[in-house]
Amino acid sequence: MLALFYIFIGVAIGVSFWQITRILNLRESVANDNDNSKQGKYALLFMAFLYAMMIYCLIALNVIMLPESASIEGEHDDNLFNITFWLIGIVQFGMQFLIFYFTFKYRGNKHNKAKFYADSHKLEAIWTITPAVVLVVLIGYGLWQWNNVMDLSDEKDAIVIEVYSQQFRWDARYAGEDNMLGYGNVNFIKGINTMGVDMSDKNSQDDKQVTELYLPKGRKIHFKFRSQDVLHSAYMPHFRAQMNCVPGMVTEFGFTPKYTTEEMRMQSEVVDKTREINKIRKAKGEEETYEFDYLLLCNKICGASHYNMQMKITVVEQEEYDKWIAQQPTLSTVINQ
Amino acid sequence: MSEHHHKETFVTKYIFSQDHKMISKQFLVTGIFMGVIALFMSMLFRLQLAWPDKSFTIIEAFLGPHQTDGIMNPDIYLALVTIHGTIMVFFVLTAGLSGTFSNLLIPLQLGARDMASGFLNMVSYWLFFLSSIIMVISLFVEAGPASAGWTIYPPLSALPQAIPGSGTGMTLWLVSMAIFIASSLIGALNYIVTVLNLRTKGMKMTRMPLTIWAFFVTAMIGVVSFPVLLSAALLLIFDRSFGTSFYLSDIFISGEVLHYQGGSPVLFEHLFWFLGHPEVYIVLLPALGITSEIISTNARKPIFGYRAMVMSIIAIAFLSTIVWGHHMFISGMNPFLGSVFTFTTLLIAIPSAVKAFNYVTTLWKGNLQLNPAMLFSIGLVSTFVTGGLTGLVLGDSALDINIHDTYFVVAHFHLVMGVSAIFGMYAGIYHWFPKMYGRLMNKTLGYWHFWITIVCAYGVFWPMHFIGLAGLPRRYYTNTNFPMFDDIADINVVITIFAIVGGIAQIIFLANFFISIYRGEKASQNPWNSNTLEWTTPVEHIHGNWPGKLPEVHRWPYDYSKRINPNDDESDYLHGKDFVLQTTPLLEGEEPS
After folding, report:
1. Is residue A276 part of a domain?
2. Residue closest to A269 by CA, chosen among A82, A62, A73, A74
3. N or C: which end of chain A has fewer CB within 10 A?
4. What domains are defined for chain B?
5. Quick check: helix, strand or coil at residue B244?
């Protein structure tokens, strides 16, 4: 690839200099019929290039895209995305055709005359009203889904988990038996109390601090986010979930995992993507094979190691989750002993 | 003003000039210079993204202390993307674009002797020059330039402990931007006053070319929104230097709790995007105005739907000031606000669609003169559509959750405002070069420049949508720590190749531009057979623009190919040729269009 790249650069520079010296001796600078004819044809050629690239990417790059939503709430996101994508896809292909085909078709010529056509209220009404109607649908569906995702008010059964960010790591705190998080503030950070939990708060006692997320399938998770230094963003792409972590305030997001990690690994899209990645890794001589895992990534610029701030998420069945959470020590035993 | 000619010295003519034509050229050349720096930076970080573990001599040579054995450090990667964004958005596409063409065309196309205040105009340029110098100096401070992203969100931008670039580098960034804003405001006020007061006889608002409408409305958006950025920057300076807590609260960093209490970074985001979003249109509208003019002239047809075009410029400008929250859907602000901003944001699609369709209809049945300027204008329409459409995805809050801050966003805004606006700027340069320098740019080089650039622009930004949909966050120094992104490494290589070829192709433009100033073909008075007033001035620049009386305007600027019988396309041209200067009086019985 690198050799190809140097060749490209060499060719580009070579062509530039050759052309520049040759062309600067030409004196005519306004397009004539010959130019119009040539450039019009190039427009058509370019359109072929554009279409080929657009279609190639749509098909060949399908495999790299995120698999189906792994959260129940995300299903509608995928739906809305597909609707929007088809819609803009059709408009894109249509409009690019018109732009470059017209450039070719109406390329100038001494013998041609342009049509004097300054206005048509009918046409303008059509292309004002059509987008407006389409937008009503997109906005309607979008806002319904937005409320659906962002409304966490009546989730009594949800598991409350705090996700805590700092340069450059993630931690998490489960709310424990009472499902209530103890108060946290940077002023309480001391020694092993790295998340600044107020240990005099009775809700804090049964909280459990962990470095990896375990989530039970089918239960609503109510995340609360905090940051101790700069802005971070908790991005969980497979669940269609993201929220900024803001120092000085608590932000929230919620979703219900739909597939366990194991189930997700069996999904055909994920199997294909994993196979593809392992092929690439092998070619590069990487020893470890890749296996699918849910991840939480930082997605707000936060400093030098922003590019490596991640936490693994494992979705399991309820029984397994219960077993796992029971094994985690409570803060009162860890901090107060 | 021009009546009594006083002797011009070298200094008053070329340096501290108060003539709008000279100031326009000063803006352009400074903008090009800054653009070269920012473009070069993008090539450096594209090298890093394509080959994160390879050593490059060029990186070793240019990044000095910020690299190890030819591989750049993560800090400087962030600094490069930050300064690339800052320079491109503000110094190239705001000052370089608006500064150049508003200055050149407002007096010339309206029939004025100069700007309302030549002195303030000169001050505007020199403040811009000063801010450019400070921005360039900031690249050389020891800890590196500002590196918190061009959006400089605190606390990252406020705390040198968080990232080294937030020390002196950030201070210089803020000082430079404060001066830049002063320059923009003075410029914008001047443009508004000139448009309102100095139109020549007969030049009603409804007869102004669309370029002027775009510059005028752009200036108004600037006046409304730039002061807010200034206040945001001032408050940030207070937080950084004087211990206030506007944006900061509850911070523990480098082993200690800082004293800040009660501020919120979300406040900064609101203030920043109150400028930041209108800024997109400050960049884009002048490009659309330029394109309207050039497409109409070169299609030898009136622009389709002049009134609708004006209305959509105004509608876009109005909406642009009430959509800033779509950059903040997941910032932690109240979700109800998210709903409101989704609604207003998607409304922008309507005037934008009107503009796109009107351009295409203007091409339809035209007699297209495919000059380089025309090709760049057509290219603008193409990238504006491609980039604009993905706005429907990003503007919908529910969909934004999952692609916010991924490469999908990077692809979207580069196409819709970056590439589109720079195409508009190139179109303007090729088209009005004869007005600036009395010579024409070489068309063959122009063609090479255009085709390589548009192929590379699409080659860079089309595949980028897909790596965004794979969930790849922007502003990652390398993706090698995530095996899940191993399958996009090759795509990044392809993107980088297109980026570098496209970047190098700009040399063709630079050579053409600078050589044509001295060696280009001498221009005739009206080389493109255009209707507007600037082509009635002499080729040689004179102070005051018109030697005698100011021209008088009798018609709108788009009477191209007007016929004897309006309903018969075969009938002869009404005035014997396919263009009618705005100064031509109506014939007896002629209907004004």
Report:
1. yes
2. A62
3. C
4. 15-263 (1.20.210.10), 524-593 (no CATH)
5. coil
Contact B367 A113 (CB under 8 A): yes
> Is the minimum CB–CB distance between B165 and chain A shorter than 8 Å?
no
- Is the CB of A19 less than 8 angstroms away from the CB of B578? no
Check CB contact under 8 Å for B397 and A142.
Answer: yes
Shared domain check, A142 and A96: yes
pLDDT by 10s per residue, chain B, length 593: 444 556 678 887 788 899 999 999 999 999 999 999 999 999 999 999 999 999 999 999 999 899 999 999 999 999 999 999 999 999 999 999 999 999 999 999 999 999 999 999 999 999 999 999 999 999 999 999 999 999 999 999 999 999 999 999 999 999 999 999 999 999 999 999 999 999 999 999 999 999 999 999 999 999 999 999 999 999 999 999 999 999 999 999 999 999 999 999 999 999 999 999 999 999 999 999 999 999 999 999 999 999 999 999 999 999 999 999 999 999 999 999 999 999 999 999 999 999 999 999 999 999 999 999 999 999 999 999 999 999 999 999 999 999 999 999 999 999 999 999 999 999 999 999 999 999 999 999 999 999 999 999 999 999 999 999 999 999 999 999 999 999 999 999 999 999 999 999 999 999 999 999 998 999 999 999 999 999 999 999 998 999 989 999 999 999 999 998 888 888 899 888 999 999 999 988 888 87
B155 neighbors A167 (Cβ within 8 angstroms): no
A14 within a domain of the structure (yes/no): no
**One domain, residues A224 and A251:** yes
Partner residue opposite B390 with nearest CB, options A88, A99, A304:
A88
Counting one residue from chain A and one from chain B, the pairs whose CB atoms sit within 8 A come to 428
Query: Which of B 86-115 lie inside 8 A of A, CB atoms?
Result: none
* Structural domain boundaries, residue A236: 159-336
CA dihedral angle for residue B111, residue B116, residue B120, residue B121, rounded to 10 degrees: -10
According to DSSP, the residues that pair with B257 across neighbouring strands are: B252
Look at residue A209 and give its three-state secondary structure: strand
Query: A259 to chain B, minimum CA–CA distance in Å?
Result: 18
In a domain, A20, yes or no: no
In a 10 Å sphere around its CB, with 0-12 CB exposed, 13-18 middle and 19+ buried, how is residue A157 labelled?
A: exposed
B-chain residues within 8 Å CB-CB of A85?
Answer: 393
Interface test with A, best of B166, B486, B530 (most A CBs within 10 A): B486
Number of neighbours of residue B589 by Cβ within 10 angstroms: 5
In terms of domains, do A293 and A309 share one?
yes
- pTM for the whole thing? 0.95
Q: Could you tell me which residues come within 8 angstroms of residue A94 by beta carbon, excluding any fewer than 6 positions away?
A: none
In a domain, A5, yes or no: no
Residues A181 and A298 in one domain: yes
- Same domain? For A138 and A166 the reply is no
